[in-house]
Amino acid sequence: MSTFLGFIRKEFFHIFRDRRTLLILFGMPVVQLILFGYAIRNEINDVQVTIVDQSSDVVSTRLVQKILASPYFEAAEHRHYVGDIERGFRRGTIKEAIVIGPGFAERLQRDGHVTIQILTDATDPNTANTILSYTNAIVTDFARDYQPLAGDAALIIPETRMRFNPELKSVILFVPGLIALILMLVCALMTSITITREKEVGTMEILLVSPLRPSQIIIGKVLPYLALSFLNVVSILVLARFTFNVPVRGSVTLLLAECLLFIVCALALGILISTRTSSQQTAMMISLAGLLLPTVILSGFIFPISSMPDVLQYVSHIVPAKWFLRIIRGIMIKGVGIEYVWKETLILTGMTLAFLVISVRNFKIRL
User: What does pTM read for this prediction?
Assistant: First the structure.
């Protein structure tokens, strides 16, 4: 029995001496709890809304103030014309637009009812439904408060319109996210593993004494994954189009070029991980914990970033998938061109170049 207890004590010593094991046992659960606890929220706050008040009377002004006073909404840039709303939707600067027609108070007083137009970005169907329910509740409450002035029949009737996804098909939301997830998984994870495998089996020595330069070794390692990942993108797009009727409303050439840019970015991340690790197990752990989870949680794939705490919103800026999702959703769902996604493209390009430069410089093997 004493021998058995000694064996158990020895195992405890091994665990407490290994920092990586302690990190897995205690660090990862804490990180996952914080990420999921703060990211998974049903409520939506600070929705960017723009209101075009063509009446500008006392009643319409009160309605606008009541909507903007809600914690659910935040005023976006002011727009004087209905035509400006479409540009805001395509740029992603607004999630909802409310149009109040002329003579709002007069029609409500005279007819007892009046209509307002509500346009919602339905790229994310769940978010769109939640935003619309918030708006309808506020408008209904306002009409109830106004009834003593206009009679019991006072009624404000919302005319709703879902932009970009009128049928509220969830597959339109998930296909772009799945492309980002698959590319990150295949490119970063597999690249980091394949390079560290060379270190483990000792074949990296042969590569280093060959006439190939470090940059050529890296390019030769990642080119097969680049080709396979690009083939994955094409197959997903074709399958989504003919199986689920997911549209590509923008330029297919621009879409494939942006996917190629993200593939290179993910490959650069995988190379960077491989230069900092010496085993496949460690590379896999870092890839899963450091890349896969942020891609799912902090990219806007499933959970709206605007509803997360400020700290997580700032952290999401360094997640490449966040910018790629904005690009691919804009091209596929909204049909935008490069003039609407140039900023995100520039950020993703800068990240890619930074990862590549750091990876090549760190590509040193201690023999």
Answer: 0.84
